[in-house]
Fold each of these.
Amino acid sequence: LLVTREYFAAMMLGLIEFWSEDAFAPWLRSSARVLTLPLGLALTLMGDSIRKAAWLTARHAFTHKIKLQRRDHHALVTHGIYSWCRHPGYFGWLLWSVGTQVLLSNPLCSALFALVGWRFFSDRIPFEEYYLYDMFGEQFIRYKAQTPTRIPFIP
């Protein structure tokens, strides 16, 4: 199941912030809307597009579960969006999730989603890359050296 308890709680927190600001400080939202609406829309669409491009490029290799062993059909995907970004699914999701909160003019959840998302990926990416190195060796080392994650402070 892709909608976890944590994901549901985060989205509910975003809605609570939105409704609270709307009820108690509507002037904040209306003045911020000029900036947050186009920025949030751009981040959300860009993140979703990057994630979908990752899925279309990797096909069966795009999963939510980290593979711990190499299978016969397993290949390191390095073309398409993967030639620009080492983990485009993660990068796209991070942009999309923060973008949803910017779009809603939620300053607290924008920061919280960025921090929690970054923290999750700062743990997950090294874990996943340990197994990618184990499966693909020098091929992965070369790919990693020339392709950034695009996620700030995660090399």
Amino acid sequence: MMSGFPRNKVLKLNKSLYRQVDAPRMRYNKLRDSLEARGFTACKADPCLFIFKKVVYIVYVDDCLWFARDRKDIDALLMSFKEDGDKYNWEMTEGDSMEDFLGIK
């Protein structure tokens, strides 16, 4: 136990240790706005699932999956996201397979 804190008490954290408490929601809102600007629509049953023509986008915290029949559709969207990277302050890397999603192997 750290000194200076009461024992046998529960403390409420008013702010995240590293960022604001609402940072994940703000990041999601920026991502949603960016996807909607590109024509994606959020699924009503699951707001982390976005659909646009032949492309499906799934996001979980800071990981995402793209699904499409044609790789060209995904490549075009990835390029536009990389161009917006500075504007939205996000970094994108590509994994080789779905096993890379969430770090699960």
Amino acid sequence: MSLQTFYDTGNSQNGTPGTGKSVLGKELAARTGLNYVNIGDLAKEHDFYEDWDEERECHVLDEERVLDELEDQMSAGGNVVDYHGCELFPERWFDIVFVTRTNNTVLYDRLKNRGYSDKKVQENVQCEIFQTLLEEARESYKVEIVHELQSNTPQDMEANLNDIIQWLVQWKNDHS
């Protein structure tokens, strides 16, 4: 049976930039037929920005417009949502939340290779050290649906994909 024929679930991929959440989300969607939704790409496509943050060197997301745009799609289910944070999303949208985590040295190298400024690299590595996004997820959703995934190597990525797909199959069996 093809996975895309029966999932109504929604899941969220969160994590510090450079932890592998986009690679994981895209591959998960490709293997399961779930819809991949990258919030950064959605915001760019529709210009869902309020402002530019000079200090952080990034756009400020217009959260209300993003939520309005996604409401119908998320209500229908079957989505993998990719964004660095999760506190803006309603709890009802997700059955499970995965937070990707990466060793600080690996993360530093990934961000430098992307051309991030020293300041932006430092901010993101500190975010990872202090588990900022993991704690945000635990505060925003029921603790039992928040799962931490290590994402340092291609082997970690494959193991994470297999674990998530196994969870999806179990979720389907439990909700049939």
